[in-house]
Each structure stands twice: as C-alpha cells, then as structure tokens.
Amino acid sequence: MKTIQYSPQQANSGKSTFRLFLIVFFFSLSFVARSQEKNLVAIGNQTGVPATLKLSELKAVMMGEQQRWKSGNRVLIALMKTTTPLGKQVAEEIYDMTGDGVNKYWLALVFQGKAQAPNFFSSVAELENFVAQNPGAIGILNKPSNSDEIKTILIDGQKTF
Amino acid sequence: MIKIRNYALMCMLAGPFFVHGQNTQIRGFVDVNSSYSKDASTFSLGEQDLFITSSINDRISFLGETIFKYSATSSTLFAASVERMIINYNVYGNHNLIAGRIHTPVNYWNDSYHHGRVFFPTIARPLMFDNNIIPLHSTGVGIQGKDLGSLKFGYNLFVANGLGSNEVLDNDKNKSFTASAYFKPTRDMRIGVSWYNDFISKGATVHGMKYAHRVNQNLASLSVANFGKKLEFLAETTVGFDDVDSVGTSTTVASYVYAGYRIKDKFIPYVRYDDIQYHGEGHSMMNNSSKMVVGVRYQINYLAVLKLEYQDIRTEGSADVNKIIAQIAVGF
Predict the structure, then answer these.
(1) d(Cα B6, Cα B2) in Å, to the nearest integer?
(2) How far is the C-alpha of B178 from the C-alpha of B146, rounded, in Å?
C-alpha cells in the first residue's frame, strides 16, 4: 500500500489555494449582490422631468414630498403594483418598506389630503406608456427603456442605481 | 316610473366619474365593534366613511369625506354627515390654497387620521376629542405648505367661521384663526405646534351648550409623533385658555401619550393614557377625567386591522367605567 505524504510546502500551497478560492468566491458573491442592487433605472417623460437627480432627491419625489418639478410641471408618479416582483423591489429599495407598507403609506397620504395618489400598473409596458404620454411623469424600471419618448434619469450620475 | 327616475339620477351622478374616471377615486372605510363590560355586552356599527378624491386639472383637486352612521333622531336611524369638503389649488411648489370644510389642523391626530379607523393606532380617539376641547372642524379658507427644505417643514394658516357658526352662516363678525407648523427631523418623526383663536359670542350655542358670556378662546398645542418600523410613539398636549367676560380665565389641559411596539410583522401591543384637567371658575361644572387603554392591534393587511382593547375611564364624581372592546376596521 502506497502512502501519500505531503511536505510542509505542499500543505501551505494547498492552504493558499483554498484561501484564494474563498476570496474569489466571496468577491463574486459581493459582485453579484452589487449588480442585483444596481439594476433599477429611473425614467421620466421628455418634458418637465430633470435629466439628473440625487438618489435622496429621487426617494423624496417617490415619497410624494414634491408636488412640482422646477420646470413647473406637476410630478406624476408611476409605480408597478406592489404584488409584482419589480413593485416589491421598488418598495424595498426606494421606500424601505414592504409592498403592503407602501400601499398603506400612500393610502394614508392621500386620505390626509397631502398628496395625489400615484398611478399603479400591472405591466412595465403600461407604466412606460403612462410615463411617455404624461409630462412630469416619473417611474422606475429594472432595465433601461427602449422608447424614444422616455428619458433615463441619471441618479447620482449613473444610469442604474 | 320611480325606478326609471332613480336610474336616471344614478346615471347623472355617476356620469362625471365615467367621463373623468382616470382622475377620480372613491374609497371607503368601515368599522364594526363589540364591547363587554360588567353590565352589558354589545355589538355596534361604527362609521361608514365614503372618501372621494379628484384631480380637476393640473392645479385644482377635490377631497370629500362623508360619514354615514347611526342616528337615533333620523327616521332611517342613519344620518349622513359631510366631514371634509376641500377644494385645493396648488399655487407654487408645495404651497396650496385650500377652501372648504377641513379637520382643524390643531394637532397630529386631527390632521392625520380623520375618520378611517383602519389608520387609528387605537380603537377610538383620545378623550380630548370627545370632550369638545378640540375644534374638530373649520369651514373657511387657508394656505398650507408641506415638506419644505431639509427638515420637511410644514405649515397651515386657516381662517374660518368661528365656534357657534354653522357651515353656511357665521353667527357673528369674528373668525377663528388656526396657525400650525411642524417639521420632520427624521423620516418617521414629526414635531409640531399650533395656536387656535376664536371669540365665542354671548348667547352662542357650541356643542349643545349655550354661552352666557362672550369668550375669547385660545388653544396652544404641542405634538410629538414617531411611527417607525418597530416603535410607535405619539404624545400631544393642548392647553386651552377661555377668557370669559366678567368671570375670568379658565384653563384646560388635555394630554395623551400613546406607545406601541411591533413585536412581529403584524402584531402591535400598545398603551395609551389620556388626561384632562380643568381649572378656573368657568369650568366649575367640568370634571377632571382620565383614560387608560391597553390593547393589541393585528394588521391583517393594509386594508384590514383587528384591535382588542381594555379601557379604564375615570371621571371625578362618576363611577369608573371598565370595558373590553374589539374592533374590525377595513378599507375598500
């Protein structure tokens, strides 16, 4: 019977390889996580909506804290229904709430007379169509829009956030 | 014939909603309650709240809130009451002109919860609302702003028919005046103050009570509200000064503190303590009172909530009242 023996150098080399593997593995995980976080795209109508916003400004707008853009156009918010995967993602990442929490937040705000209700959509195509047709409209997608009638709003200088 | 006439009337009423359907929303809220005390157990209907909002154009919008509830004096045993009827004109940015009937923005509760029980953190409103200390409604015009600057500053200035008036006619030359301001140091917190002034004429009837003297009423209020993911906290105090001709000044101090804590996604145990103190000659007939509330709220979803509550109400000169109340409140 043949016995395999490792020298100390070989053992150290194995440890280094394992350590390298772990580093690459966790780096890949963090890269995947980062790429998942940064897949939202803010879109707006060609008229009235600014070309760039800070993320904090976008969140304030989506929370109904701004009635008009600086252009004078009324802010019209377009959201995917919170039962859709994109709607849930927007609820978590923009509102820091559950989908139910977002629905309650808006119902309360409208009931208080402090905001106009946003427009909720079941499909991305409907949302894009609404944003394209209404000056001042803003919405959030999980991929850039192909429509010429819609512009991508840069958030903190980036197309995705 | 009557059926045809009714149908035509319904079509006329419904017409605007079809024509401007994309801009008009109709929502509603209802609640049903059950209470148990030493002497009796009762089921009771709460309010059916019809809530309408409509965007008339780019700047003008409408908000209406009408309540249907039990009324012993009505032939049908139900009565309708217009609680809010507001025409809003967006002047500039977040500044709006408002006209109509509003819930007087003297404190957080009256400015936030209105009649939708599904939003109430407890089953019922604090004692200060039941004891006619807060002027619940005002009919008039005003200006309001919200979410201004980094502290999300908000304000309300409102001139209205004074106490003793009705919704179509002021009973005297005096107008009530409400000024309130608040800011939000964090997303979940709102801190606010308000001041309300009115002159109640001699002989005026307010909340069923006839005033024998002219009264200059001033109310100063302070509110601190924090509704976070876990902790809910709301504390409000109103100090009322009634300067009564030839009698002197009477003071009322009405406060409550509410705290709730979300222990699971849908369960929020809570407590609330209300206290009302009367001082001065003008309040010699008023009795100090307090209320302790301990309960739990189960949020089924954003449109349905169950609450179970124990209430202990103590009023000077009266026997204590203890009861257990359950409520289901829904929105639709």
Answers:
(1) 6
(2) 16
Question: Which residues from B are below 8 Å from A107, CB to CB?
Answer: 27, 302-303, 331
User: pLDDT per residue over A111-124, tens digit each?
Assistant: 999 999 899 999 99
Residue pLDDT, tens place only, B47-76: 999 999 999 999 999 999 999 999 999 999
What is d(CA A153, CA A159) in angstroms, rounded to the nearest whole number?
Answer: 7
Q: Are B252 and B278 in contact (CB under 8 A)?
A: yes
Give the C-alpha separation, B21 to B18, whole Å.
5
Q: Domains plus CATH for chain B?
A: 37-331 (2.40.160.10)
Looking at CATH, the fold of the domain delimited by A41-155 is given as D-Maltodextrin-Binding Protein; domain 2 (3.40.190)
Best of A104, A111, A119, A134 to mutate (most B CBs within 10 Å, chain B): A111
Q: Which residue ranges make up each domain of chain A?
A: 1-37, 41-155
Contact A116 B61 (CB under 8 A): yes
Give the ipTM: 0.88
Chain-centre distance for alpha carbon B226? 18
The one-digit pLDDT tens for each residue of chain B (332 residues) are 444 455 444 444 444 444 444 579 999 999 999 999 988 999 999 999 999 999 999 999 999 999 999 999 999 999 999 999 999 999 999 999 999 999 999 999 999 998 989 999 999 999 999 888 999 999 999 999 999 999 999 999 999 998 888 888 888 888 999 999 999 999 999 999 999 999 998 888 887 788 888 899 999 999 999 999 999 999 999 999 999 887 888 999 999 999 999 998 899 999 999 999 999 876 656 889 999 999 999 999 999 999 999 999 999 999 999 999 999 999 99
* Separation of alpha carbons B90 and B100, rounded Å: 15
Q: Which residues of B touch A (CB under 8 A)?
A: 25, 27, 51, 53, 55, 58-59, 61, 63, 84, 86, 88, 90, 92-94, 96, 111-112, 114, 116, 119, 146-147, 152, 301-303, 331
Residue A100 has its nearest CB partner, among B114, B152, B302, at B302
| B90–A74 C-beta distance less than 8 A | yes
Mode of pairing for the β-strands spanning B175-183 and B189-200? antiparallel
